[in-house]
Amino acid sequence: MTITAMPGAPAGDAAPEEKKGGKKKLVIVVVLLAVLGGAGYWFFLKPSGPPPPPEPGEVTALEPIQVNLAGGHFLRIGIALQATTTVAHDVEGSKALDAVIHVYSGKKLEEVMAPKEREHLKEELKKEVDHLYHGDVMDVYLTEYVAQ
Question: Which InterPro entries does this one have (predicted)?
């Protein structure tokens, strides 16, 4: 003789209650694992603020060039590039010299000689060089600046 159900309890009611309790336990375990995973990330793997600023590396001085200004004037300008320590070699300057020509050529003599405008043009050059060198150059210095 085989017993398939306990006396006094209907045979079909026991299985759904066990499944229902099993689903609740599974949901609780999943939520608990998500909370523990989030807490572990927060305390151990979370980035600790912004990255440190780049450290200055070598300065590469470039040969001065002459740039044509408006009205038959010209500007003789020399620059030096301050690389970051992430650069393992000297910075090749042809892209920077091209940026100098792009930023300064065609400007009026009054524009390149006014102190405020000169600083503005230098900042524009610095942004252009930063873009061209993908952040490997952190500053641009004017080593020669003669307009005529």
Answer: FliL
